[in-house]
Amino acid sequence: MKFYVDAQLPRHLSASLKWSGHDALHTLDLPSGNCTPDSEINYISIEEHRIVVTKDADFVNSFLLSEVPYKLLLVSMGNLNNLELEELFSKNLSAIVAALEIYDFVKITRTSLIEHK
User: Fold this and answer.
1) Is the pTM of this model over 0.90?
2) DSSP secondary-structure letter at 34?
3) How far apart, in whole angstroms, are the C-alpha atoms of residue 9 and residue 73?
4) Using CA atoms in the order 60, 114, 1, 77, what is the torsion angle rounded to 10 degrees?
5) Omega before 10 cis (within 30°)?
6) How far apart are the first and last CA of the chain?
7) Within 13 Å of residue 97, how many CA atoms lie on the same side as its CB?
8) 34/36 Cα distance (integer angstroms)
9) What kind and span of H or E run contains 7?
10) Which of 27-31, 68-72, 80-84, 92-96 has the lowest mean pLDDT?
11) How far apart are CA 79 and CA 69, in angstroms?
């Protein structure tokens, strides 16, 4: 799967996704870095069929209103350190991938994975 990790999430998450065999970019990989506008992230997501991984509610609104980005993984778990985030993703990655093969919008919390049609 192809992922695009947004600015509020650590670059290490995209590296972890790569180590798991996925194609992953972070906003820091783009020329404008973490200042890349959401509209550009949405464009890249659509063009490259990348799943946007974010904590940003603006992407949820954009997805619900306009069906962009291509697919969305909302990280909704409040503050947690990078190690906790990586462990959560590592433990749930196969379920996340399976959900994103079927659904266009998936939300991960500390305790559950919620699929949205």
Assistant:
1) yes
2) G
3) 12
4) 70
5) no
6) 19
7) 13
8) 5
9) none
10) 80-84
11) 24
Number of folded domains that form the chain = 1
Q: Which of 114, 26, 24 is nearest to 77 (CA)?
A: 114
Strand 51-54 relative to strand 71-75, pairing: parallel
Q: Residue 59: which domain range?
A: 2-116
Amino acid identity, position 26: H
* Tokens of residue 71, six digits: 């697919």
Q: Residue 78: pLDDT band by 50, 70, 90 thresholds?
A: confident
Instruction: List beta partners, residue 14.
Output: none
Q: Do 9 and 53 touch, CB atoms closer than 8 A? A: yes
Structure tokens at 69: 């980005």
